[in-house]
């Protein structure tokens, strides 16, 4: 299919869509109108490659990947698409003809925040890489009407507001009103002989919305298919006619609740049933959809694994095991054993956390009431597991159903052909801890695929200055072959190159400083070190340790203001799950510390603290290229991988971090002399648990002790001296993440960083080497690993007809 516009005719396309899709003239068009027109024009360019990719996959009946994820944290789509199609200059020029700024137009787009953090953003990077590499794939998820909440601060306290990304037209998707599946809940199982049939009491419909996802230079384009819940029965006319209007609308409202909001991660007991329904809703719709597609070309469902690889992104879609078995056996007539084997050879599971509270476990009663047939099947799967366990003679006793709960990690593991962790350390710990029993029974099943990030968004898109320098120096191939960045490594010793590299960093810092001045009414100097910690607020990520170190540094400056300080601006960014009280308390403390430091004339420009509200993908795109120092300071053994750490290193920030998650591999790649590692290792953390007393560590650290005393006596909350007691109370009672134990090592490492930053040449060299040696952390490399080791799928891009 031919592109509908001549090359270079973006102007014509934008003007056409402004009139015909948006219904405006250039004189009356708002920024949003221009954005909608540009989005339409750009989307048009995706159609030909999209159809071509789909047709080629069908024609060749090729194996496809189905990536099932509760979260796709896409961020803005327009700028990314413009970048992937290399249309930036054309778009800028076309808009400029109307006196419209390209930057204003792309910044007008709300983030598609259909995710909480790393897991959802990883899914988005994977979509990009699968398209870049020409791997036929569908992303399957939920089209939440409201993504992750918007965060603001009220006197330092986090306030949550509903997010509204679909308020304007969402021009990237195609509504598929014909693509509908029934999703059942509740009811009973009717058994006739060996046959079982589930008769649900409630049914909602899942309707598809498709978004084309173009890879680099649109070499290949895949589909993100998101499901929206619709009522089976639009409207109840009887109650309406009786004047009972609320009751008449109730069924529709209830059905639509399923795709209304993204649940915050790490959250609470509340809404458990709804969460389980959401999980089943999108998993079942996706499986029905992919089976329908498979059956258009194939008759024997036992051949499913030859054409289909399903990846379960964490346990959220783990109900895929029993649901696929149900569809294959109850609906399509396979025996249980055939259905189990087929499902197991098709399914794969990625584990993203070892934190016990994030490993899903559903109450058996809840599971039985919402999914009665699945509960039966889970028990049969558990029997299969029991048989394998007995045969293995390992002496271990892993079970899926234990103490009246269904352990979804064990279920996902049992139903999968391959199970992977997301960094080398995390995968080792999976084998040693949560999955140690299962690993003994199935020693071949666990493997590692260290995470990665897409260089298109996280360097080419967000750091145009560095992009241009790289293009000029090593050509453009690095965009789709990131390890070519190594070619700039020798230039780390070239003063002229270093100067240009750091001038770009300085521009990025200036841009951020301007933004802070304009949006937060705070002046910061781009000459100071920009030290950034951005991620979800969680105790294990230890923003509290960073806050304490910030306060301690302020104390030291106050004592000796005339000493030779390395000026710093500390940035914090991130949201706490609304029900996570301890994390919200930490946010308030950080904001209070910031207030105290930023208004202290003695400290002045030596230290400033910035906590922009509503951290999201778009903010990350501005912060990361401006960072000198990347804070990756989780308790060793707790951060499965991290991906922010990779984005920072790629953009020439130096890491201060623990030997946790992918930091270990970053250290291996960039070299131990180009990273500041401190603190206990995972093994040392384990050893220190025995007899751990927080107060002992505080007593041994005068620097920490002083800060703790300040917090206790209300130094940061004058007028409300007890405000931060809950933070201290928790720390003293249960410093599970060992803030106190690692504090001094962190303080010392920060002082080494001060010295390092003061030596401009040496720092610039480290910064260049971080970029040069981070190419391995491309999500293209990760996806190639999945394709080869897990999915058994080849690239179709570039393959001749
Ligand atoms: O916490 C992990 C993070 O370390 C990892 O980088 C990311 C992607 O693999 O997943 C996060 N896990 C979750 O968000 C929930 O399990």
Automatic annotation (TrEMBL):
Q: Name one Pfam family in it.
A: Phosphorylase
Instruction: Name the CDD domains on file.
Output: GT35_Glycogen_Phosphorylase (cd04300)
This protein's source sits in the domain of life called Bacteria
Entry GO MF terms: 1,4-alpha-oligoglucan phosphorylase activity
Q: Identify which cofactors the protein needs according to its UniProt entry.
A: pyridoxal 5'-phosphate
Residues annotated as coiled-coil are none
Name the enzyme group at the top EC level. Answer: transferase
Q: Return the EC number.
A: 2.4.1.1
Listed under catalytic activity are: [(1->4)-alpha-D-glucosyl](n) + phosphate = [(1->4)-alpha-D-glucosyl](n-1) + alpha-D-glucose 1-phosphate
Family matches, as PROSITE patterns: PHOSPHORYLASE
Q: Which UniProt keywords apply?
A: Carbohydrate metabolism, Glycosyltransferase, Pyridoxal phosphate, Transferase
What this chain does, per the entry, is described as: Phosphorylase is an important allosteric enzyme in carbohydrate metabolism. Enzymes from different sources differ in their regulatory mechanisms and in their natural substrates. However, all known phosphorylases share catalytic and structural properties. Allosteric enzyme that catalyzes the rate-limiting step in glycogen catabolism, the phosphorolytic cleavage of glycogen to produce glucose-1-phosphate, and plays a central role in maintaining cellular and organismal glucose homeostasis.
* Sequence similarity: Belongs to the glycogen phosphorylase family.
Please identify the protein, giving its name as recorded.
Answer: Alpha-1,4 glucan phosphorylase
Source species of the chain? Ruegeria atlantica
Q: Which gene encodes it?
A: glgP
């Amino acid at each position: 299919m031919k592109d509908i516009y001549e090359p270079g005719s973006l102007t014509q396309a934008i003007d056409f869509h402004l009139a015909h899709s948006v219904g405006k003239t250039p004189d009356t068009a708002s920024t949003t109108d221009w954005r909608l027109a540009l989005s339409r024009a750009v989307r048009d360019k995706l159609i030909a490659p999209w159809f071509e990719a789909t047709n080629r996959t069908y024609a060749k009946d090729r194996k496809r990947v189905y990536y099932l994820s509760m979260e796709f944290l896409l961020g803005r789509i327009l700028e990314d698409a413009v970048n992937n199609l290399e249309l930036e200059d054309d778009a800028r020029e076309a808009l400029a003809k109307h006196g419209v700024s390209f930057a204003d137009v792309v910044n007008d787009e709300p983030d598609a925040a259909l995710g909480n953090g790393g897991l959802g953003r990883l899914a988005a990077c994977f979509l990009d890489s699968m398209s870049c590499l020409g791997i036929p794939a569908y992303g399957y998820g939920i089209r939440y009407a409201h993504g992750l909440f918007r965060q603001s601060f009220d006197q330092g306290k986090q306030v949550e507001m509903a997010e509204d990304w679909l308020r304007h037209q969402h021009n990237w998707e195609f509504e598929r009103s014909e693509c509908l599946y029934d999703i059942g809940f509740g009811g009973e199982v009717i058994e006739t002989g060996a046959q079982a049939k589930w008769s649900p009491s409630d049914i909602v419909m899942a309707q598809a919305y498709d978004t084309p996802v173009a890879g680099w230079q649109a070499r290949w384009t895949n589909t993100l298919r998101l499901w929206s819940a619709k009522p089976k029965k639009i409207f109840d006319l009887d109650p309406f006619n009786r004047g009972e209007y609320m009751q008449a609308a109730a069924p529709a409202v209830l059905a639509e609740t399923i795709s209304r909001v993204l649940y915050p991660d790490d959250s609470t007991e509340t809404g458990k049933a709804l969460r389980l329904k959401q999980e089943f809703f999108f998993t079942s719709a996706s499986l029905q959809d992919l089976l329908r597609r498979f059956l258009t070309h194939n008759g024997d469902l036992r051949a499913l694994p030859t054409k289909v690889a399903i990846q379960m992104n964490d346990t959220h879609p783990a109900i895929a095991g029993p649901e696929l078995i149900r569809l294959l056996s109850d609906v399509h007539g396979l025996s249980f054993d055939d259905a189990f084997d087929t499902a197991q050879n098709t399914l794969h599971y990625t584990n993203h956390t070892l934190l016990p509270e994030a490993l899903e476990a559903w109450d058996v009663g809840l599971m039985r009431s919402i999914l009665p047939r699945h509960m039966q099947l889970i028990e049969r799967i558990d029997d299969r597991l029991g048989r394998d366990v007995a045969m293995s003679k390992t002496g271990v006793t892993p079970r899926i159903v234990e103490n009246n709960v269904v352990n979804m990690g064990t279920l996902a593991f049992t139903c999968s052909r391959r199970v992977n962790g997301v960094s080398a350390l995390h995968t080792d710990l999976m084998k040693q801890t949560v999955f140690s029993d299962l690993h003994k029974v199935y020693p071949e099943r666990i493997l590692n695929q260290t995470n990665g990030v897409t260089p298109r968004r996280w360097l080419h898109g967000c750091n145009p200055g560095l992009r241009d320098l790289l293009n000029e120096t090593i050509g453009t191939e690095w965009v789709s072959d990131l390890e070519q960045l190594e070619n700039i490594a020798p230039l780390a010793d070239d003063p002229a190159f270093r100067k240009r590299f750091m001038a770009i960093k300085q521009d990025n810092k200036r841009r951020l400083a301007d933004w802070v001045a304009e949006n937060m009414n705070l002046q910061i100097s781009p000459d100071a070190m920009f030290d950034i910690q951005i991620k979800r607020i969680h105790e294990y990520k230890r923003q509290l340790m960073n806050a304490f170190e910030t306060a301690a540094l302020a104390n030291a400056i106050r004592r000796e203001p005339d000493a030779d300080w390395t000026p710093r601006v500390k940035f914090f960014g991130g949201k706490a799950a609304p029900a996570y009280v301890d994390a919200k308390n930490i946010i308030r403390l950080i904001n209070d510390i910031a207030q105290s430091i930023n208004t202290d004339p003695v400290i002045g420009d030596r230290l400033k603290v910035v906590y922009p509200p509503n951290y999201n993908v778009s903010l990350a795109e501005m912060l990361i290229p401006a960072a000198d120092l990347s804070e990756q300071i989780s308790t060793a053994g707790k951060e499965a991988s991290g991906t922010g750490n990779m984005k920072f290193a790629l953009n020439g920030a130096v890491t201060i971090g623990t030997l946790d998650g992918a930091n270990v591999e970053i250290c291996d790649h960039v070299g131990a002399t180009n990273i500041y590692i401190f603190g206990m290792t995972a093994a040392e953390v384990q050893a220190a648990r025995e007899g751990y007393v927080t107060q002992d560590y505080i007593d041994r650290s005068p620097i920490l002790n002083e800060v703790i005393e300040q917090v206790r006596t209300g130094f940061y909350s004058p007028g409300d001296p007890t405000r931060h007691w809950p933070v201290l109370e928790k720390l003293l009672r249960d410093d599970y993440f060992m803030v106190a134990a690692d504090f001094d090592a962190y303080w010392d490492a920060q002082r080494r960083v001060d010295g390092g930053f003061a030596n401009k040449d040496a720092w610039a060299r480290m910064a260049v080497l971080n970029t040069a040696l981070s190419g391995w952390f491309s999500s293209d490399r990760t996806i190639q690993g999945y394709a080869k080791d897990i999915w058994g799928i080849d690239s179709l891009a570039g393959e001749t007809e």
